Amino acid sequence: MNLDMVLQLIIIIGFLLLGNGIVAVFPIPLPGSVVGMLLLFVVLITGILNVEWIEKVSSFQLKHLTLLFIPPIVSLFLSSGFLEILQWNILIILIVSSICCLLGTALAVEWLEKRRGMK
Amino acid sequence: MTNFIVNIFFCMSITFVCYLISLKLYRKYKKSWLNPLYTASILLILLLLVLPIQGESYREGSFIFNQLLQLAVVSLAVPLYKQWSFLKKNFKKICTGVICGTALGLIAVLGMSQIFHLPEQTRASLIPRSVTLPIALTVSRDLGGLTSTTVIFVIISALISLTIGPKLLKRFGVRSKSAMGLAMGTSAQMLGANRSLVWGEEEGAMGSIAMTTSALFLSVFVPILAYISHL
């Protein structure tokens, strides 16, 4: 990791801290990380910050996003309450609602695209 | 104190090692079921069962990954920015898709918890199951759900969507790039957005915007819904 990457990382950390700070002060029902993302986005779109300044670190992070999900999954399976909570009826609800959500989104978008295509 | 630091260092290194091994495996054999997410998790669980470490101390040591995850959420601004003009053009499509998907998922949860006679608290923990984790926690807390339970529901449903999603969409003949990205982002959030980046830039941008919009939609809509149902 060179100096360039460290600087880029510091910028992103700064936006996270800023987001956390804003959420702590104002009654916004969003987590600090999302507020930080929205702020960073605004700064990029208004051209205050050049995208090249943070591109390397952000694409590196998103490429290895999977890594960050491993610890919560592992802790989940190791926790004692896990089997207690996950009964078959809840599992069915989770599966069915996931399918509903996936298909609802995809089919609505396709329907909209087709309708627009016909006009 | 030194114990604590050693613990963090140890947790990080075994997680990294497991991830690198499974990434190597995945790149070598190129099978979709060898996704590092599954193989690394299984590897790590086995390792933790064999090694004389408590699950509790691993959880303590791995908090650092939670911080990194928050940073990754901030980083999502970059793909969003790069695809902005494209997203603006498709504004209506995005809103329709995300609202339909989230609403349908919500109705499914409410209807089925009615059928199974689930207790109020379980239902409250189930409602935010399809939004990104940090937001789900806030919504669940506001509704009177258990946050630790919500974490389980969110991760499990993201894993379900991630596993069946691509095949399900293919089955139903969904071929539109935006439909695929939006569906994965709405249903599996970060994991889905990441998965749709594999399909391509357009799908990836759709995935991350779907994650953000569905989270915004639910965090605004659910408190209103709760308010109405209490009247």
From TrEMBL, chain A:
It is a multi-pass membrane protein. Its main location: membrane. It holds the Pfam family LrgA. GO terms for cellular component: plasma membrane. InterPro entries: LrgA/CidA (IPR005538). It is found in: Cell membrane. The keyword RNA-binding does not apply. The chain crosses the membrane at residues 7-28, 34-53, 65-83, 89-112. Keywords: Cell membrane, Membrane, Transmembrane, Transmembrane helix. This is CidA/LrgA family protein. It comes from Lentibacillus populi.
TrEMBL record, chain B:
It is found in: Cell membrane. It is a multi-pass membrane protein. GO terms for cellular component: plasma membrane. Pfam families: LrgB. It comes from Lentibacillus populi. Its main location: membrane. InterPro entries: CidB/LrgB. The chain crosses the membrane at residues 6-26, 33-51, 63-82, 94-116, 150-169, 205-228. The keyword Secreted does not apply. The keyword Transmembrane applies. PANTHER family: HOLIN-LIKE PROTEIN CIDB (PTHR30249:SF17), PUTATIVE SEROTONIN TRANSPORTER (PTHR30249). This is Membrane protein. Keywords: Cell membrane, Membrane, Transmembrane, Transmembrane helix.
